[in-house]
Amino acid sequence: MPAKVTAQLAWLCILTVFLAIYPAWLQKPPKRRTVNSNAQVKMTGCCNEVKELKLQIANMSAMMGELNKKQEGDWVNVVMQAMKLEEITKRLESRLTDVESKYSEMNSQMGIMQLQAAQTVTQTSADAVYDCSSLYQRNYRISGVYKLPPDEFLGSPELEVYCDMETDGGGWTVIQRRKVGLISFNRDWKQYKEGFGNIRGDFWLGNEHIYRLSKRPTVLRVELEDWEGNIRYAQYNHFTLSNEYNSYRLFLGNYTGTTGRDSLRYHNNTAFSTKDKDNDKCVDDCAKFRKGGYWYNCCTDSNLNGVYYRKGEHTKNMDGITWYGWYGSTYSLKRVEMKIRAEDFKP
Ligand SMILES: *[C@@H]1O[C@H](CO)[C@@H](O)[C@H](O)[C@H]1NC(C)=O
Ligand SMILES: *[C@@H]1O[C@H](CO)[C@@H](O)[C@H](O)[C@H]1NC(C)=O
Ligand SMILES: *[C@@H]1O[C@H](CO)[C@@H](O)[C@H](O)[C@H]1NC(C)=O
Ligand SMILES: [Ca+2]
């Protein structure tokens, strides 16, 4: 090949790579809103990450510049290097997108906080932020962590919740999740009352919060995943808990779903039990046998707050995360989520 053509080819290649990078430079960070200092700290952390990624991308293009100078030499080598750079750049860009989507989630949290500030002035019960379904109605459509403002009228404190804004139309407040398996669910009454765990990982929202959130007509959705990645769900209308005085007794309406048999109905109209409070309908102490807090009857047809067993260990015990109607009494599931939303919710 004549030297001129090779040089031109190399240039063309470099130009293409450069154009692939350029749009990432142009992306402006989403606009800042100033709400409170706590939020600011998070925002700064995030922006630094974005900044750093952008710097790295800029560095890549500086290295492209160096390559330009070398283009007189061996062009195959240049093209190879350019391709390698392009690959790295692509990886950086996808990381940037990742960070920016996290950032937009934070932004929507900012929105809630603003709302909170506005609300102290204009709140009426009609536009109260009550749960994730009311947030959805206010156009918060990104799944993630939100802060529900305190409400004196409803007697509720500020509460951090995880909203599922995607499943079956969204608007779900997640009340329980098992998927990581690092924390114990064999906890006492007080911990089950107040809630425990990590809102982004495994947690129990707290019986007192669930009781309060299910005071108005509420749907409960239970999502189950086995170790092969199959997902099933069970859904109930008229889900509610009684108050602590009545031991957070469970009430369920009719079942719809795909979980084989309904394995929560057996626990209907049953009080909550923990290792330090035996409210079950058995001479045995179910919470001790099944190692969780649950609406134990005598004892279980499901045990969603049981012990998390990993693959290989998941079929050997009776105290795992079970749903008898799908896999029987000894198969511990890989992932479970329980979530609620208002019965009159319309996506
Ligand atoms: C760019 O990256 C190279 C290789 O990783 C590094 O040696 C150099 O210091 C970086 N330059 C800047 C400005 O970050
Ligand atoms: C459950 O289904 C029965 C029979 O279809 C119906 O009569 C009843 O009203 C339903 N209950 C609820 C809570 O929806
Ligand atoms: C659950 O128990 C309550 C109270 O006994 C009852 O009214 C309701 O129909 C029951 N739900 C189901 C699904 O059986
Ligand atoms: Ca008992």
TrEMBL record:
Outline the extent of the Fibrinogen C-terminal domain.
123-344
Q: Name one GO molecular function term.
A: identical protein binding
* Sorted UniProt keywords: Coiled coil, Disulfide bond, Glycoprotein, Secreted, Signal
Instruction: Offer one example of a GO biological process linked to this entry.
Output: regulation of extracellular matrix organization
Q: Which parts form a coiled-coil structure per UniProt?
A: 50-109
Q: Which domain of life is it from?
A: Eukaryota
InterPro entries of this UniProt entry? FIB_ANG-like, Fibrinogen-like_C, Fibrinogen_a/b/g_C_1, Fibrinogen_a/b/g_C_dom
Annotated membrane-spanning segments are: none
Q: Where does the record place it?
A: Secreted
One GO CC annotation:
extracellular region
Task: Indicate whether Disulfide bond appears among the record's keywords.
Answer: yes
Signal sequence, renumbered to the chain: 1-26
Q: Which NCBIfam families match?
A: GGGWT_bact
Q: What is this protein called?
A: Angiopoietin like 7
Please report the organism this UniProt entry assigns to the protein.
Crocodylus porosus
Recall the taxonomic lineage recorded for the source organism.
Eukaryota, Metazoa, Chordata, Craniata, Vertebrata
Query: Which gene codes for it?
Result: ANGPTL7
